Structure to design on (362 residues):
């Protein structure tokens, strides 16, 4: 059975570690987009609610609607609302992060049609990531728009492009300087001023002096903060396991897998595992770039990863069919496994497929 085991006690540990990095009045927004980074959204969110998180954030409206339908009543920010989902967003009492003039105008018209007043919104600035967000030159226009009765400006924020990079980092320093200027402009123009937030998980550790009123934590809640010294403070919540479904004895010179992907340099034993690229273990993990743990030893993935299965070399490992196999969560973490194929924990975790059973452990 392919199983992703999720340890909520580790989530609690990570939450408390992050809280210790914050000033007492600094609020935490837990980012739970993409099925809570590929884990299990509702158990994850419910534990965060119990722990006292201040707000939640998702990427798209549909994710927020699912949380509302499950009874979650905390403030929920939607980072990237799309124009055709604004009405659903409004119906679910979600809080949009507005990042363009067209989006502000579309939402303004909708609020006025629905006779909504003082609806909470957040303004996103692009200070260097070049993904989404207003330019700093748009500030006067935004301030004028936010004077309309339909809007209540809750926060102004941006996103550091390299928050885990060693300091000093000229890109982050420039972004911080721009953001400080934005803060000054809004503090002068707004009474009361909105809240401000700039830091993500890595930023909480790397730029604690720039916490402002809020921070946004996502991957760190799962046990990763993109630097070894920070990761050491956290506990990964996920463990991916399977079992050997068949063993093959192959002769020296024999080929294993599609397209003659691996040739045995000696008489070898190959274990077949019931996970493949349809389950999120991509082909880039093949040809010895990825490895798994079997009975305390590492076994390299050989040849091409198939859609539903992959093969590992267990020639020097005592094992049998049915033995447990760990992809991560034992000697290595999801970040370690992902790094072996030049990937990152985010991509690995969020790409795990629906055929993998999720088991919640308290």
């Amino acid at each position: 059975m392919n199983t992703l085991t999720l340890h909520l006690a580790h989530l609690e540990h990570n939450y408390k570690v992050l809280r210790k990095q914050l000033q007492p009045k600094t609020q935490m927004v837990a980012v739970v987009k993409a099925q809570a980074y590929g884990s299990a959204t509702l158990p994850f969110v419910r534990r965060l609610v119990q722990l006292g998180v201040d707000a939640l954030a998702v990427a798209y409206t549909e994710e927020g609607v699912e949380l509302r339908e499950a009874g979650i009543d905390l403030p929920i920010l939607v980072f990237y609302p799309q124009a055709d989902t604004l009405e659903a967003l409004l119906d679910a009492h979600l809080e949009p992060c507005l990042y363009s003039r067209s989006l502000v105008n579309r939402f303004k018209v909708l609020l006025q049609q629905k006779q909504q007043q003082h609806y909470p919104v957040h303004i996103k600035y692009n200070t260097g990531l070049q993904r989404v967000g207003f330019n700093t030159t748009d500030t006067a226009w935004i301030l004028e728009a936010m004077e309309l009765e339909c809007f209540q400006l809750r926060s102004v924020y941006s996103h550091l492009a390299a928050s885990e990079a060693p300091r000093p980092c000229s890109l982050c320093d420039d972004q911080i300087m721009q953001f400080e200027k934005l803060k000054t402009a809004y503090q002068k123009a707004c009474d009361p001023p909105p809240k401000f937030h700039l830091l993500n998980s890595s930023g909480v550790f790397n730029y604690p002096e720039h916490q402002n009123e809020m921070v946004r934590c996502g991957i760190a809640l799962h046990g990763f903060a993109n630097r070894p010294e920070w990761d050491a403070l956290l506990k990964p919540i996920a463990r991916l396991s399977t079992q050997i479904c068949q063993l093959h004895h192959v002769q020296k010179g024999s080929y294993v897998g599609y397209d003659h992907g691996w040739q045995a340099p000696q008489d070898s034993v190959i274990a077949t595992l019931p996970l493949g690229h349809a389950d999120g273990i991509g082909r880039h993990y093949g040809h010895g770039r990825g490895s798994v743990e079997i009975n305390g030893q590492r076994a390299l993935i050989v040849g091409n990863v198939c859609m539903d299965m992959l093969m590992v070399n267990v020639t020097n490992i005592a094992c049998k069919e049915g033995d447990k196999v760990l992809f991560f969560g034992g000697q290595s973490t999801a970040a370690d496994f992902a790094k072996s194929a030049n990937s990152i924990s985010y991509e690995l975790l969020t790409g795990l497929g629906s055929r993998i059973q999720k088991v919640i452990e308290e």
In short: The domain at 238-361 is CATH 2.40.37.10 (Lyase, Ornithine Decarboxylase; Chain A, domain 1). Residues 291 and 300 are 4 Å apart (CA to CA). The chain has a mean pLDDT of 97.
